[in-house]
Design goal:
The chain is an alpha+beta fold. Helix content is about 50%, strand content about 10%. Strands 1, 2, 3, 4, 5 and 6 form a six-stranded mixed β-sheet that branches. A hairpin with an 8-residue loop joins β8 and β9. It is globular. The N and C termini lie far apart (about 175 Å). About 20% of the residues are buried.
């Protein structure tokens, strides 16, 4: 083997241009052999080669060694030249094994993503015609009026089934689970859920009776007598509705507990809840309860007037309206007690005697004043109170704003759209749009207190407020008229008695 010291034998050919670099590298490797290299004592992985493990003995020929290493690197790097096949074969024989670093492995990990929420459980909305079309037994002799009546009866039946299903879901999934997990006490559960156990049989009973009354062809002839017997059972809602204001307040308070809030949120995200929160499910029962007169009227609308069932339907409507009126009365009294305790005066000497005597909350809600500030208005049966919402000790309270107006001293003025400009000084005298849905509340004697110019959200909201206030005013005036008639009657009787006594005395003389 020739010696590496002989420079004449192993002179590398000169590289004339960059394109022939690949060819000269291969030729250079073919004309000489690598010098004997000394290996370090360490274990190498199979099929791996470390260039840094070579230690060249002769430092004097470092320039020549660098050229050889450069030639080796040219072999390892892919190129577009004509010697691609040979270089590929040489490259496959040598592999570099680079250990993966912890940093690179962490970057390759996919970040955690919360699972997507389950799809909501959709409730099928079926009509009587859909049911009959599916079964293939649609009677052909029915008129348009008869079909409408069957649709109204089936709507009542399907609504009872859906409501019973929701109440059972609330009872088992929410109330029983919270009791088992000891999230709330027995008393707290009773206040939030109310008499829910007694409501479920009410709706299951009507659904079963309507289904049993259905004819084999799928039609239902008469339901009036069934409804007259069933409507009195709706009195269970009187207690349920009167308890709602306290139940809602307690539920909102308990939501501040992370465990309770997490449980309710998980239930809401589950398919069985249809993405509805607990209070929406509970309040759905009350919403259905107040719609029974409308549902029965819809059946009566498509029933022949000479039909005997019309009489029973009219009776059922009267009974349902009576029960709803009783529930409204009890709910109003409960709301009156609840909000009356949360209305505070800035000074003790400002307390209103009419507020203490009030026993019924007619309505309440948020309106805006002429400064575009939100105010919470309470219309009681004895007084109208304007308040501002404040937070005291983590609880929502209502601080009285200006002097409350007793109903017997209240004057209601309906203002036309565009008659009053409201808002800031700039908006008032600017070219902005005029305010709509405005009305004014004031004292009969302007010296007793200031008036309130209020703006409702929309026309419907304004109409509701005007009707409620006017109805309360009429009730107070009616009571005053009855009191005056009673006083006049007593005075007349006293005068008649005195005249009779005088006449008797004269006769005796």
């Amino acid at each position: 083997m020739p010696s590496m010291d002989d420079e004449n034998v192993f002179r590398l050919p000169e590289i004339k241009d960059e394109k022939s670099c690949r060819r000269h590298s291969v030729i250079g490797l073919a004309n000489f052999e690598l010098p004997s290299l000394r290996k370090r004592k360490r274990k190498l992985d199979e099929d791996s080669l470390s260039i840094q493990s070579f230690d060249v003995e002769h430092k004097k020929k470092s320039r020549r060694s660098l050229l050889r290493v450069s030639s080796l690197a040219n072999l390892l790097s892919p190129s577009k030249g004509s010697n691609k096949t040979g270089s590929d074969g040489f490259q496959r024989s040598i592999s570099f094994k680079v250990p993966s670093s912890p940093a690179s492995s962490k970057q390759s990990l996919t970040p955690y993503k919360a699972p997507s929420p389950s799809p909501a459980k959709k409730r099928l909305s079926r009509t009587w015609s859909d049911m009959m079309t599916t079964s293939g037994n649609m009677p052909k002799e029915l008129s348009h009026r008869d079909i409408k009546k069957q649709e109204a009866i089936y709507e009542l039946y399907q609504g009872e089934k859906d409501l019973a299903e929701d109440l059972i879901n609330v009872k088992k999934t929410y109330r029983d689970s919270m009791k088992k997990l000891q999230l709330l006490s027995e008393g707290e559960l009773q206040q939030i859920f109310g008499p829910i156990d007694s409501l479920i049989p009410v709706h299951e009973d009507l659904a079963m009776k309507l289904q049993m009354n259905r004819c084999p062809d799928g039609t239902t002839d008469r339901v009036g007598e069934i409804l007259v017997d069933w409507v009195p059972s709706l009195k269970e809602y009187v207690t349920f509705c009167s308890n709602q204001v306290f139940g809602k307040a307690l539920l909102d308070e308990k939501r501040t507990n992370p465990a309770v809030d997490d449980f309710l949120q998980r239930c809401q995200n589950s398919p069985f809840s249809r993405k509805l929160d607990l209070w929406t499910l509970l309040d759905g029962a009350r919403s259905k309860f107040i719609k029974y007169p409308l549902l029965i009227k819809s059946i009566r609308k498509y029933t022949q007037s000479e039909d005997e069932d019309t009489h029973y339907l009219n009776e059922a409507i009267k009974l349902s309206e009576r029960v709803i009126a009783e529930a409204d009365q009890m709910a109003g009294e409960a709301k009156c007690r609840y909000f009356r305790c949360r209305i505070s005066f800035l000074y003790d000497d400002e307390k209103c005697e009419a507020l203490e005597q009030s026993s019924m909350l007619v309505c309440n809600g948020i309106l805006k004043n002429n400064k575009n500030s939100k105010l919470h208005i309470f219309l009681f049966d004895k007084v109208l109170v304007v308040t501002r919402t404040v937070n005291q000790g983590g609880h929502q309270c209502f601080q009285v704003y200006r002097q409350p107006i007793p109903i017997e001293e209240l004057i209601l003025t309906d203002l036309k759209d565009g008659e009053v400009k409201m808002g800031s000084f700039r908006k008032t005298f600017g070219s902005g749009q005029t305010t709509k849905n405005v009305f004014r509340l004031s004292f009969q004697d302007s010296n007793k207190g200031q008036s309130h110019t209020l703006t409702a959200t929309d026309e419907h909201d304004k109409r509701q407020w005007l009707q409620s206030i006017q109805k309360t005013l009429n009730g107070v005036r009616r009571e005053e008229g009855d009191a005056q008639d009673s006083t006049t009657s007593k005075t007349s009787k006293t005068s008649t008695t005195s005249t009779t006594s005088a006449t008797t005395t004269t006769t005796t003389e």
